[in-house]
Specification:
By secondary structure, the protein is an alpha/beta fold. The protein has eight helices and ten strands. The protein folds into two domains: about 100 residues; about 120 residues, GAF domain (Beta-Lactamase, 2-Layer Sandwich).
């Protein structure tokens, strides 16, 4: 599975000290990492791990905007040398092992999802497969906020901690579905953020269409206040 530069930076920062710009691309375009060989050409859509000693040779490379150079260093630089996109304070071997495991995890998830669909498994089954990958509660709701399927590490999480009493919240949900705020995201393509005053939790969302219209919505709930926008492309894949 191809991962995004922003997602790699987000995951690397959970294990290492990282220097990366905030505007890294969010789309999944990168394939398995390789160790950069001094003097070789840059290949599209690859992650190249390099050392400080190789920085000088990188300046002569023809620019390949779809690849990503990741510098492994003993001390983070004050600024990123061209064409490096991410600097990590660690050894090449440690970072390489981390990224190999990361790509393996999401490759396995992709294969499991695709096989599950070929086998005609339910939406609930797909959410259960995805829960360990996202580590946040997932649910699919109708456009009236009825829960179609849900997965959480806490069995009692749905629906009590999301919508509370349905009788008590029905007027709020009805009001929301008629609001301009709700209308503005009803037919959005791709992932988007949804405010926390509806469910009590912020969320990343993707609309799911049926017969050309938004019929359902996939939500990833921000229970730990640490959801990253860089996970949006993964949610889009699951919605597909």
């Amino acid at each position: 599975m191809k991962l995004s530069p922003a997602f790699l930076a987000y995951k690397l920062s959970s294990a290492f000290s990282v220097l990366a710009p905030e505007n890294l691309p969010l789309s999944g375009t990168l394939e398995l990492p390789v160790l950069y060989q001094t003097g070789s050409a840059a290949t599209a859509h690859r992650v190249f791990l390099c050392t400080e000693e190789q920085i000088g040779s990188l300046s002569s490379l023809l620019e390949e905007s779809s690849s990503l150079f990741l510098l492994c260093t003993e001390e983070l630089p004050e600024e990123l040398p061209a064409p490096v996109s991410i600097a990590v304070k660690s050894s090449v071997s440690a970072v390489f092992s981390f990224l190999q495991e990361l790509f393996w995890t999401y490759d396995s998830w992709q294969k499991e999802l695709m096989q599950a669909r070929l086998d005609g498994k339910s939406i609930q089954h797909l959410l259960n497969l995805s829960l360990p990958v996202f580590a946040h509660p997932l649910m699919v709701v109708g456009m009236d906020f009825s829960i179609i399927a849900a997965a959480s590490e806490e069995p009692s999480f749905f629906p009590e901690k999301v919508f509370g009493s349905l009788d008590a919240t029905r007027p709020l949900l009805l009001s929301l579905t008629e609001s301009s705020e709700y209308a503005s995201v009803r037919d959005l393509d791709g992932w988007f953020r949804f405010p926390d005053h509806v469910t009590g939790l912020g969320s990343l969302c993707v609309n799911i269409t049926q017969h050309g219209q938004s019929a359902y919505r996939l939500l990833l709930l921000d229970t730990k206040k640490d959801l990253s926008d860089s996970e949006g492309f993964l949610l889009e894949f699951l919605a597909e």
